[in-house]
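hey m, so remember when u said the tokens were messed up on ur end? i reran from scratch. heres the input so u can diff it against urs
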Amino acid sequence: MKFQFEYPEGATPLDPGEAAALLSSSISTQGELNEAEQANILSAQRWSMTSRLSRDPAEVLSDHFLRSFHQSMYGEVWKWAGQYRTTEKNIGIQSELIPMAMRDLCSDTAFWTENQAYPFDELAARYHHRLVQIHGFPNGNGRHARLMTDILLCAHGKVPFTWGATTDALDIRPKPDVRKIYIKALQDADQGLITPLMHFVRS
């Protein structure tokens, strides 16, 4: 890369090999990278909210859909889009455990839904936390997890989350105070306290 990556607070840096997997050689600044990613993600968001998959819970809760949606979000920018990470990060589970953890999350969420284990907002917040906690991809995990959670909500006829009063689930980096609250809520959920995250996602 010809430019220095800039990461918002709480983001996970790319490994050198991952950083070298940029598809376009014309991107030379962080701003250009952000624009390319945003355009790709907006296209994926439009598709997800209009396709039949966004309204089919059985398709949404699958390892295949998790990977396919990440591919649709980043496939025009990164070679590793849609591929589970093979490197270790300062957040997330061990890389070799990711495929099984993703399948378990889908299975657990389907079980929660079928048995009405939680009110649906709490169920979706728990799903979101687990998806972030697994941290399955080299990058883009937060945006992927927020959009996947909204897709899950829509698939069950629910209203998408507001994510701390941001305009959508794509990017909360321009609002540092909101991002700090979000990260703290996720950390509380790590300790078994889901209420702060539930408040955040509908605030």
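this time it looks ok to me. The first helix runs from residue 16 to 19. if urs says something different then somethings off w ur setup not the seq
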